[in-house]
Amino acid sequence: MTVTLSVQAHSNHLFTTLLQSGVEVKTSSTIEMGSFLCQLPGFTPEYISKTVETIFLDGTPVDALNQTFSGSNPTLALSASMPGLAGAIFRKNSIHSALRTATDKTDQLQQDQQEISVTLKLFNSIAKERGGDLLSNGVSIKVAKLLNFLERRPELCDYITDIELGSETVTFAEFLTGISQLQSINLKVRNANG
User: What is the DSSP letter of 68?
Assistant: First the structure.
């Protein structure tokens, strides 16, 4: 099911904090994380190199994007520079990385190619700079995350001018009823003027 939210001109950036809760992106289990990111709108190698400062894969800091994912639903979280000592410790290739809590590293086993779903989370300026493009192209998101987001930010509903559920224009109440029994939807957020 595709849901399209048309929002007042230049207000779609207000919805990018939704990306902190995570969206689902289908990909191959054998793709390297850097190649995966380069397939997303606006994520060029230069942007990734200059802007993406902190990378977590399943809660563990990562220094390089040349490894593949593991598991059928890994979580990849990206952030620009974070302030303070924590930011310095978790920044990729940081001289302070020795202060990180040690984690058991497992060797990546060669795996057969299969489709996996990566939960992608974007924070701070990365969400602001790249989130609009992701949302306008459409993202797969769990309905519970979207409903929680809208419940915690009721003022955002004032910016929504139209809602399409599939190909039908619906009211906000019909939208809530229409998605309430679904697990996930394809969500698009775009400016009402195009």
Answer: B
